[in-house]
Amino acid sequence: MGHFSWIDGSIVGVYLLLTMAAGIAVRKYVGKVEHFLIAGHQMDLYLGIASLAATEFGIVTCMYAAQNGYDKGFAGATPGILYAAAMLFVGLTGFCVKPLRDAGVMTIPELFDKRFGSRVRWLSGVVIVLGGLLNMGVFLRTGGEFLVTVCGLHVGYLEITMTLLLVMVAVYTILGGLLSVLVTDFLQFIVMSVGLIAVTVLLLVNVGWGAMVKAVEMNYGAGGFNPFVNETMGWPYVVFNLMLNLAAVMTWQTTIQRLLAAKDTKTGQQVYTRTSFFFICRFLIPGIWGVAALATIPAAALNGNTLQAMPMLLATVVPVGLMGLVVAAMLAADMSTDSAYMLTWSSVIYNDILGPFRKSKWSEKRGLLWNRCIVACIGVFLLIYGLWYPLKGDLWTYLGVTGTIYLSSMSTLLIACCYWKRANNWGATAAIIFGAAIPVGFLVIEQVPATAHIAKVIGPYYSGIATYLIAGAAMVVGSLLKPCPRAQ
Amino acid sequence: MIHWFWAGLTGAALLWYSTVTVYVAVKGAINIRDMLARLSKENEEG
What we know:
Chain A is mostly helical and 488 residues long. Chain A contains 21 helices and no strands.
């Protein structure tokens, strides 16, 4: 199965060579840690838009957005609409992000240090890295499975292919840091965008809008168009995703890193407002691919694994030549995501987890060496965890839980830090603990046979909503419990 | 009515994305050039 030929292989090869050359070429501009981690605050508006869009669209996003389209119809694009609304709101108002950028920090925990102390900064760093690395752990395997299906690779080549890809990404990320990431993101944005648009037009022409709408109507009725009446969604799904996406816009490290790297606060906010509509495209375009798969791929062919519906469709519909562009586009999406994510977690480890242990100021050379070593270690972790350790369970639930481990508490801390004078380290610590314990606890009871039925009754959306509310309550209660310092 | 919402949103998404890709490609290339020039100057002065 699949139309992947030597022509397609050549297209992919040329793209990979160009990306590597560009990524390595900019390493000579890296003179300080600040250049490595946040491009020396020199990132301008349009580069910021391209980088943010490329980073936040990976193969994993494409896969689960398409799966949403297959499983829920057009209503499956609801998270993208909510994300865009949240980003537009935050960009226009500067809610939390303005004080954050004005502070001139490199990471969010660095801001918390100024307000809540070094222990909260350290704890925040640990929670962020824990949630972030576990979240990222699935990227390689999911990307590999996509490539195997679309290109018709022998499944035995999966691990070695993804290892080689990760090594290529690691090379330019280690050498050039965020500068390399920005430049390669820019190239990858162009390739990715051209591929996405081309495939979408091809599917609309070949499958037809009418056939897609009919397939959704037949399978899901009104629920395929309206999330509030969809049996698997409803208002809890919408509310949970609104909370999740608002928290992500304010505190998801890869997103906020673009804001922190902007040359000034105004540019940072503009990056947000002008990129916001992209997040509708991010869910809707692959969602359309999923709906097209619903209209063409019989359910029996999937063996219950709807995640494979879209790759199977692409493998059969996309012709030679365009297939090379599609694979290059998906590789572009994946590489930009992997490089940015590796760098962002490395910046938190260096800045916030290891920071308290640095007794004296390090030289730029030493700082750069440490950052590069951390990125390399993250790469090794991803290989071991992502490729060689078989992941069990539903992909979206896994991403939602690992994300909420840190998003719930970090968004609470950020809001309190920016707008509530009474907030203190007691409240911050309580919010971090509850914000991590509840989603992890839910995941555990979901897996244990004796308690699985309880988890099913509660469901992931009510659990998620409760996590955000309880983290907020913990911040308030904890802060109020701490005695006020005596007036001098 | 709701079908038209999704049709309209899909059309808007494709049109916006196509336009932005071209615009960002041109402007982004200029941004990269200027960014690298500023960093180069900073490294020379530093």
